[in-house]
Design goal:
Protein Transport Mog1p, Chain A, 20 strands, alpha+beta, 326 residues
Length: 326
């Protein structure tokens, strides 16, 4: 099983990587078949349908530009109702016995791609039979999922997700509700559990955003304000868990809300309702002793909010801010 980003595919056990410089490529033992599995982002295009068309054009251009080959298209389709959007492109040069079949999945400007190559395709149907099960196993993995309880009520099925890669403490939480208010502000509520204890909080993003040009660039950064809001005991528990992950003692908690400053990172947070949004959040930006930064990434379609560490030097002031110090 191979995982790339939020995609997963099952390959035959004897297919292996043969080139350390190309970790996305796997090949069969006899070298007659191979696959490229990759993922990347296309954030300069807002609409997933347009992203799909972009991918299709790229894939078709690749085969057309291969000198000495004349591929016939056996299949070229894009799902009309599925979420995420799934595309398939199947091309075959019967004279050169070369078949390339590609499946690509697009979700909020993220592209997940699996391209199977049959270098010795003497019988199309045999190749199709061999590849179909592999492509069927290529799926998109949502970060969070729902499961029914005995009473039929939906219940969140994942506990708090914590990682400590390269020394950074990252916490992923589940969005249980989000509201676009009449004044165009945006309220997000997260809730998870850890060892039977509820953790959660709310984030309010204010309606006003200021665009500031990046020096020597055509791009801009979007700056705004908001609030980190307590939901009571779940927020106190979240801060306690975060403090423990940082290596601190349990803090004294007396926070109702904390003002924050927000900047979008290579994206416009005003489009949060329709796209994956990455932000840097500043706590107590006017207080040098309590100043801290954290990354907060929101993906509404995945019901996911990532609370990711920016730098270890901000740990103590961040916890103090989240406990209510000003």
């Amino acid at each position: 099983m191979i995982t790339k980003g939020q995609s997963q595919i099952n390959l035959p056990d004897d297919w292996k990587q043969t080139d350390e410089k190309n970790p996305d490529y796997f090949v069969s033992p006899d070298g007659t078949k191979g696959i490229y599995v990759s993922s990347h982002e296309k954030y300069d295009v807002d609409d997933d349908r347009k992203v799909v068309e972009f991918v299709r054009k790229i894939e078709k251009t690749k085969t057309k530009s291969m000198k000495g080959y004349k591929f016939r298209t056996y299949s070229d389709s894009v799902s009309s109702t599925e979420d995420p959007i799934v595309g398939n492109l199947d091309e075959y040069d019967s004279n050169k016995n070369y078949r390339i079949v590609t499946k690509f999945i697009v979700k909020q400007q993220k592209i997940f791609r699996a391209a199977l190559h049959d270098y010795d395709c003497t019988e199309y149907e045999d190749s199709k039979s061999a590849f179909d099960s592999i492509l069927d196993s290529f799926i998109y993995l949502p970060k969070y999922s729902w499961k029914p309880t005995d009473g039929g009520r939906p219940e969140f099925g994942n506990d708090l997700i914590i990682s400590k890669e390269e020394g950074f403490v990252d916490v992923n939480l589940h969005i249980v509700s989000y509201t676009a208010n009449r004044d165009v502000s945006f309220l997000i509520k997260v809730s998870n559990n850890i060892e039977g204890r509820a953790v959660g909080f709310k984030i309010l993003l204010d309606k006003k955003w200021t665009s500031k040009k990046i020096e020597n660039s055509k791009s801009s950064l979007f700056w705004g304000t908001g609030k980190f809001i307590s939901t009571g005991q779940p927020t106190e528990t979240f801060v306690e868990v975060l403090s423990g992950l940082y290596g601190f003692q349990n803090p004294e908690f007396s926070m109702n809300e904390v003002n924050i400053v927000v900047v979008g990172l290579a994206n416009d947070p005003r489009k949060l309702a329709t796209r994956d949004t990455k932000m840097k959040v500043f706590f107590n930006s006017d207080n040098q002793e309590l100043y801290s930064e954290v990354f907060i990434n929101v993906n509404l379609s995945e019901k996911s909010l990532e609370f990711h560490e920016k730098d270890e030097e901000y740990r103590q002031p961040l916890i103090r801010s989240l406990c209510g110090e000003r």
